[in-house]
UniProtKB/TrEMBL annotation:
Residues 11-114 form the STAS domain. Gene3D superfamilies: STAS domain. Signal peptide: none annotated. One of its GO terms (molecular function) is anti-sigma factor antagonist activity. This is Stage II sporulation protein AA (Anti-sigma F factor antagonist). It comes from Actinorugispora endophytica.
Length: 120
């Protein structure tokens, strides 16, 4: 259902299976629990590559977990949605406001660049 890896700096949470009205709250809780040790400045990538189904209930759970992490100052992004999951994220207005990357490496690169100082 979920696995966690700790590459530096982002925490990668890999979800597996169906995320729907019935399982969404469990997935949301697992994401929040896995990211409990994340601090502001240490982003979280939620890997959706092994999610086989996502409906509006599952999307609400992902948004709730995203909001809970954001309220703690933790930047959370989604990566590698495939098939139905990608289509739901693409079409559903509730996904707006959550950064979604086609591959984990793109998410890692984007998050790494957020930490770089900018010149003015």
């Amino acid at each position: 259902m979920i696995s966690v890896s700790h590459p530096h700096p982002p925490l990668v949470i890999r979800l597996r299976g169906e995320i729907d009205l019935a399982t969404g709250p469990t997935f949301g809780s697992l994401i929040r629990e896995a990211a409990r040790g994340s601090t502001p400045g240490r982003p979280v990538i939620v890997d959706l590559s092994q999610v086989t189904f996502l409906d509006s209930g599952g999307l609400r759970a992902l948004r709730a977990a995203h909001g809970a992490l954001a309220s703690r100052g933790v930047h959370c992004v989604l990566a590698e949605p495939r098939g139905v999951t990608a289509k739901v994220l693409e079409l559903h207005s509730a996904a707006r406001g959550i950064d979604v990357y086609p591959i984990i490496e793109a998410a890692q690169t984007a998050l790494a660049h957020q930490d770089e100082p900018t010149c003015h």
